Amino acid sequence: MIAEDSVLLRVGVQRLLADEGIETVAAVEDGGALLAAVEEHRPDLALVDVRMPPTFTDEGLRAAIEARRRVPGLPVLVLSQYVEERYAVELLAGGANGVGYLLKERVADVSEFVAAVRRVAGGGTSIDHEVMMQLMVRARRNPVDSLTQREREVLGLMAEGMSNGAIAASLVVSDGAVEKHVGNIFAKLGLEPSTSEHRRVRAVLAYLNLG
Q: Which residues form the Response regulatory domain (predicted)?
């Protein structure tokens, strides 16, 4: 489902997703309608704008947080023109799985946007690099001081939702090197073995000083 007050963007995103075989069960324009639609349809993903009526401040993000409270585990991907730090922290810290925060300009890259939609709907994370950097500046202390520069680069790309293969291609290193770095990251952050995806999410949250 889509919650976006701009008719042009709402319809445009709906058509873009339809072209990729993704059905929109509801498209609404305010937080109240978002909550009603979430409870009625139980969608695989809620795509939510931050600023919606009536005040156009943070209604969408607050509604997204409430939606995850009412429907535990609801995947939410937030789209915003701005980084709303306080509520971004609350959204991301409220549950490790199925959350994302992208700036609206990323929609222009259709393949990356659709990949983020599918990733978050599948229980993963997709955090915009600019959002990540602002949250890091906000943090009072960095919980990843023990990581090397390369390990921080790898963890930063993990935060953007990249797979090991994509990270290897981005850094022009082997898959094995990335796997080694990821293993070191888990060890240094004290993340005990569980499912691989869950540890990746927990590592990202530690990187953002949310975990």
A: 1-119
